[in-house]
Write a structure and sequence with these properties.
Rossmann fold; 17 strands; binds histidyl-adenosine monophosphate; 426 residues; alpha+beta; nine-stranded mixed sheet; five-stranded mixed sheet; BirA Bifunctional Protein, domain 2; elongated; 2 domains
């Protein structure tokens, strides 16, 4: 037997869970501020939900197995296919736009390293039924505001965005067949980490001619000016450029220009994106991506639903937790107990229990010593348990229907009548 968890899986001791709870609370608060409602789905899905549309990288990382009924199943590596499946099943009856969020635990068999584990929690926030630029802006703004709510600022992080529709249009204009696009995006997604030779090999694997592969790679060095000069009169490219301009104007109108930057090298690895794509990174480049998302206008139809446009993002708890620790933005734990009731000897235990349960009935968090140890010892236990207030009950106090109340923050002590204690407002 071993006391360690599996590689890449975390134990959440109370202090770790406190940070996780802080992250979840903040995500939920900001999501509802933007008018999103929470949903959830099953952690285990049919394997083909992922093999059909997620893309090779994620499929290679699946925790998949055959269940006892002979079904090929997998632990969810991401939430988007489940979300698309759930929406597709009821799309007709749901008012649009659908604005939902969820905080699922996800499983990917990755090589565990800083910022990457084999399980993580991921806020997913998505909109269905909107093609407007305003909805693109809304999703990016929500992701930015999530991070601002934790106390992070424009010096800490940046949201980089691009448009896969634009890059697709350019690639198709260059003669790249549509069927090769997902593999081309997967290769370009790695261009900042891998050598040029590696990227070109992957592009050639995706049945792109070596000459064209070099031109595709050159795209990663172009800016918007280069693209509009070379491809601006291709209709599909022109439309994307207009959309990107509107996006920029609305980001500025929302006051978010310090947080959001265009970066045409960004394409994202997942296969289903069709338009806007974005990722949030820490400015110093010390951590992996905090958040990633984009528009996936064809996925609902691909999982058997109606053709409805959709977009959203996933923000993981692992990198975010690392960043918050790095910037000293983990809130200090407050008091874990409101009161700790000390009884001086065993004889006062019934009186102490009466106080403990009366206070708990009023909603206060109350502890006491199960073993009637010395008063000094009980004070120590109260302190370790994080009590804000200690209530001491001895023989004289029981006699007079009162108790001694001590604030653990200030050390101030007062005598208080029992009736007043049990009726008190704090
Ligand atoms: P993703 O880029 O694969 O997107 O994941 C989003 C975020 O989840 C990443 O930026 C990262 O913070 C976190 N993450 C991913 N894998 C791991 C891991 N192994 N360990 C720790 N954190 C991780 C998606 O999953 C898309 N389904 C997001 C989406 C929603 N797109 C549209 N809607």
């Amino acid at each position: 037997m071993t006391t360690t968890s599996l590689p890449g899986f975390r134990d959440f001791y109370p202090a770790d869970l406190a940070l996780r709870a802080h992250i979840f609370r903040t995500w939920r608060a900001v999501a509802s501020r933007y008018g999103f409602v929470e949903y959830d789905g099953p952690p285990l899905e049919s394997l083909d939900l992922y093999t059909r549309k997620s893309g090779e990288e994620i499929v290679g990382q699946l925790y998949g197995f055959t269940d006892q009924g002979g079904r090929e199943v997998a632990l969810r590596p991401e939430m988007t296919p489940t979300f698309a499946r759930m929406v597709a099943a009821r799309a007709g009856g749901l008012p649009k736009p659908i604005k939902w969020f969820s905080v699922p635990q996800l499983f990917r068999y990755e090589r565990p390293q800083k910022g990457r584990l084999r399980e993580h929690f991921q806020l997913n926030l998505d909109i269905v039924g909107e093609t407007s630029v305003a909805s693109d802006v809304e999703v990016v703004a929500a992701a930015v505001d999530m991070l601002r709510e934790f106390g992070l600022g424009a010096a800490d992080f940046v949201a980089r965005y691009s448009d896969r529709g634009l890059i697709s249009a350019v690639l198709q204009e260059m003669g790249i067949p549509e069927a090769s696009l997902p593999a081309a995006f997967a290769a370009l997604d790695k261009a900042d980490r891998e050598s040029e030779e590696w990227v070109i090999e992957r592009l050639v694997d995706a049945r792109i001619e070596p000459d064209s592969a070099r031109r595709v790679l050159d795209l990663t060095g172009m800016d918007l000016g280069d693209l509009s000069r070379q491809f601006g009169d291709v209709a599909a490219v022109g439309e994307c450029l207009v959309r990107l301009n509107r996006f920029r104007e609305q980001i500025e109108a929302a006051g978010l220009e310090d947080f959001v930057e265009l970066d045409l090298r960004l394409v994202r690895g997942l296969a289903y994106y069709t338009g806007l794509v974005f990722e949030i990174w820490d400015r110093k480049g010390k951590f992996r991506a905090i958040c990633g998302g984009g528009r996936y206008d064809d996925l609902l139809e691909a999982v058997g639903g109606p053709a409805l446009p959709a977009l959203g993002f996933g923000m993981g708890d692992v990198v975010l937790g690392e960043l918050l620790r790095d910037r000293d933005l983990v809130p200090e734990g407050g008091h874990e107990l409101d009161d700790f009731v000390i009884h001086v000897s065993d004889e006062q235990l019934p009186a102490a229990l009466h106080i403990v349960h009366s206070l708990r009935a009023r909603g206060r968090r109350v502890g006491f010593d199960y073993r009637s140890r010395s008063v000094g010892r009980q004070f120590k236990v109260a302190n370790q348990a994080g009590a804000a207030r200690v209530i001491v009950v001895g023989p004289e106090e029981v006699e007079r229907d009162e108790c001694m109340v001590r604030s653990m923050d200030t050390g101030e002590e007062v005598k208080m009548g029992l009736a007043e204690l049990l009726a008190g407002s704090d």
